[in-house]
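Reopening this one. Same input as before:
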Amino acid sequence: MTLDNYMKQMNVEKHRNIICEYNVPEDMKKMIEEYEGAVLPFGEIFDYETMKKKSQEEPFNNKWLVFGKDGLFSFWVCKINCASGDIAYTTWDHGAEKNGW
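Same output, byte for byte:
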């Protein structure tokens, strides 16, 4: 199932009102540009201003784009300026050992 099909199934409307200025993978840019602010059954994708604010905070320090959360313990993050082959996506849990990673 594609992201677009899933979002349609969840009744999340697609929109284009921002341009992602971060150096992240193209699929992440597309998701942000079309679905920022979406509320899902298992969490939420932040609005773009919240993404920028959270990404500047410790421990992310503009090295990770914080694009959403699961509503329980974890933030969803994407590595900024990642090289091809690097792990681009992960979660960060403030309660986990080793600083949440």
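So the earlier flakiness isn't reproducible anymore. For the record, The chain has a mean pLDDT of 89.
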